[in-house]
Amino acid sequence: MALLEIRNLRVRFGGFTAVDGVDFSVEPGELLGIVGESGSGKSVSMMALMGLIDAPGVVSADALRFDGRDLLAMAPVERRRIIGREIAMVFQDALNSLNPAHRVGDQVREVLRLHLGLKGAALESRVLELFEQVEIPDARRRLDAYPHQMSGGMNQRVMIAMAMACKPRLLIADEPTTALDVTIQAQVMALLQRLQRDQGMALVLITHDLAVVAQMARQARHRLAVMYAGQVVEQGTLPALFDAPRHPYTEALLAALPEHSRGATRLNALPGIVPGRHDRPTGCLLAPRCRYVQPRCVGERPPLAHDVRCFFPRPNTNNGAHDV
């Protein structure tokens, strides 16, 4: 049985459907990467899972289950026992996510008090253990620091410590390397991989950076879901999906990686932007930007069939042309 099962998830804000019929499943110990441009619905999908969509947003789904339990049917108090404890989330831009008026150690203590009821020496021991686990240098002294006294990388480690406080079975990392320099990005991703391996937890990694996914795809049991305009347009295992992308959008994302434009005068780019509420096509949502568009694509919206949402998918050849 899947640890996480999402079927036909929809998130609406007024007349705009930000997430449109999304299906996800995650097995215990598995990594699922979710990629796509800004506005594709990646973060909104996971915030819906976490119960973080406020009015006027409306969440609906045929299934929203964690370990067989129906999250949508739960009373709010019951759902809060799972969210933050068995399912945790690391948000992008740690400096804006942390409370600037409280010491970072106190913010981790609050999680442990709320979810585990720790106090006294046990609480202090666990906070210090978490700071050391996420490799914060001089951990004991850092407990009394405020977020503005820490670097971006250190604040992101504090966010990871908060998420790992209750040893979750599923960790969602939403653009965890945003605003970090390349060296620190690599350190944070290596930390997440180590924690996943050591804790045996499942990991959902949300990112617009395919290079980040490629780095983590070197291990087995990793899958990728590509989202566009609120829909999953392709999904599959890695590195097979990188080697032979079938949806034109996946192909365009891979072609836009800088290493695929070596020697060119200009980087490859996908023209246009993700459609919003007022410019949503009648047919395939990618049709106005797709180099392979045909008349059927303009008037008819394709379903997700055989893991690709396209009437005319690219040939399924595995020639390694998109190795990253």
Please describe the structure with a list of short key phrases separated by commas or semicolons:
6-stranded mixed β-sheet; 12 helices; 11 strands; 5-stranded antiparallel β-sheet; alpha/beta; globular; 324 residues
What features would you describe in this structure?
With 324 residues, this protein is of the alpha/beta class. The chain contains twelve helices and eleven strands. A six-stranded mixed beta sheet has the order 7-8-9-3-10-11, with helices on both faces. Strands 1, 2, 4, 5 and 6 form a five-stranded antiparallel beta sheet that branches. The protein is globular. Residues 319-324 have low confidence and may be disordered.
What proportion of the residues is helical, as a percent range? 25-40%
Secondary-structure element pattern, one letter each: EEEHEEEHEHHHHHEHEHEEHHH
Helix and strand composition category = alpha/beta
Q: Please, what is the average pLDDT?
A: 90
Tell me the radius of gyration.
21 Å
Shape descriptor reads globular
- How many beta-strand runs? 11
Termini, distance in Å? 32 Å
Oligomer: single chain
Strand order of the largest sheet: 7-8-9-3-10-11
What does the main sheet amount to? 6 strands, mixed
Extract low-pLDDT stretches.
319-324
Strand content: 15-25%
Number of helices: 12
Write a concise synopsis of the structure shown.
With 324 residues, this protein is of the alpha/beta class. The chain is built from twelve helices and eleven strands.
List the helices and strands and how they pair.
Blueprint: E1 4-13, E2 16-26, E3 31-35, H1 42-49, E4 57-60, E5 63-66, E6 69-70, H2 76-82, E7 87-90, H3 94-97, H4 104-116, H5 120-133, H6 139-142, H7 152-164, E8 170-174, H8 182-199, E9 202-207, H9 210-216, E10 222-228, E11 231-237, H10 240-243, H11 248-255, H12 295-299
Parallel strand pairs: 3-9, 3-10, 7-8, 8-9
Antiparallel strand pairs: 1-2, 1-4, 1-5, 5-6, 10-11
Helix pairs in contact: 4-5, 4-7, 5-7, 7-8
